[in-house]
Amino acid sequence: MTIKVGNFVRGLWLWLLVCLALAAASRGAFADPASACTVASAECPFVSSLLAQREGYGRAATGGLGGAVVTVTSSADAGPGTLRDALANVDGPRWIRFASDMTITLLSQLHVPGNVTIDGRGHRVTLLDYGLGIYRSSNVIVTHLTIDGRLRTFSQAINVANYSSNVWIDHLDLSRFADRLLNVKNGSTDVTVSWVKFHDDDKVMLLNNITSKDLFANYDRDKVARVTVHHCYFLNTVQRNPRAQFGTFHIFNNLLENWDFYGMSFSLQARALVEGNIFSNVSKRDCVEPKFFPTVEGVNANYCKYIADAPSRSALPNGGSDQKNFERTAQLYGAGRDYRAYLSVRDNLYLGDARPVLVSYLPEKVSAPPYCYKYDTPTPKLAEEIRQLAGNTGGQTPGTSCQ
């Protein structure tokens, strides 16, 4: 039998090329349209696919839509090709992507201007020690990053502050910051936090904060806050998942698992719809906290001793975080005020040893969300979906059918 070596070799090469193409496609290399789109127009697949997933109060965020596509090529802290350089001297909308997997050790916080998207999809991008500050910025989208503070700096993973608006924080993995993982404060509003994994941290999320003995000193400024938190995964945290004051909040379809002190907290005339969340905790488990969490107050904190009773604190009692301070100062500042939040609480699920705490309080003061949204009935199946898809993951998450 005669073997035609030339045909055999050509066939082998063709077979290898097909295999390489399929492997590259599975990694998203051939689906990456960055090489084809120099402008982040609505026709670019990577732009339209992301914007289709917007929901909640931050649904109007456009990020870098219509702007130049800028690719980060260097993992250095600063200099040409770095993320810091891409965020500097921005004179118009900008959609920032990454050329490869990279770990960036930051020497200071990165400031994110308005009309910017930081899009880590397609690569594993990690920021260490510092995170992102969004100050007086509108139309910001941040998606698919890992930000790990390593408990080295008194900073935040994401700080949305100083009258920022139309901000969407999506598919991040946030952990180990000595201050907080996420703030929304100081007159900021219209923010959505979706499919984020918060883990291994103490004071996780603060939605507005108190800076005066008069608890309501900044009420008029901060009551404008409107924040949606949905399909987020809070794992092995201590508290503030979230802690919310003053503004309007929609907290739905989140999974809180194995908090060490308490789950959620609402107070000071916040208006919150809390629906379809899953609270899962067990009283007999090992503590995975570090020896201590450093705090800005200089107190080294550890909460392992509270684990046995933590399941009964899926939340603090309404207003509990601020009741003592309110009563202490009520005669001076509290006339006509309420230390409690106005709550509409429904359809939440409690697994393991977790027990309900929050109940509705003056729910007629809580307006229905002014948008449509994809709501999932809370079930163990949904909990597993959130475990798999929340965070800096490559999995596709469902978007809403309306904007």
Provide an overview of this structure.
The chain is α/β, with parallel strands linked by helices. It has a single domain, classed as Single-stranded right-handed beta-helix, Pectin lyase-like (Pectate Lyase C-like), CATH 2.160.20.10. It contains six helices and 24 strands. The chain has a 17-stranded parallel β-sheet that branches. The longest helix is centred in the N-terminal third of the chain and has 22 residues, at 5-26. Mean pLDDT is 92; it is low at 1-5 and 16-34. Pathway: Glycan metabolism; pectin degradation; 2-dehydro-3-deoxy-D-gluconate from pectin: step 2/5. It catalyses: Eliminative cleavage of (1->4)-alpha-D-galacturonan to give oligosaccharides with 4-deoxy-alpha-D-galact-4-enuronosyl groups at their non-reducing ends. Belongs to the polysaccharide lyase 1 family.
Task: Report the CATH C-level class.
Answer: Mainly Beta
Basic shape: globular
Mean pLDDT across residues: 92
Tell me the distance between the termini: 67 Å
Which band does the percent of strand residues land in? 25-35%
Fraction of residues in helix: 10-25%
What is the CATH topology classification name?
A: Pectate Lyase C-like
Rg from Cα? 23 Å
> What is the N-to-C succession of helices and strands?
HHEHEEEEEEEEEEEEEHEEEEEEEEHEEH
GO biological process, one term: pectin catabolic process
Protein name: pectate lyase
EC number: 4.2.2.2
Keywords: Calcium, Carbohydrate metabolism, Lyase, Metal-binding, Polysaccharide degradation, Secreted, Signal
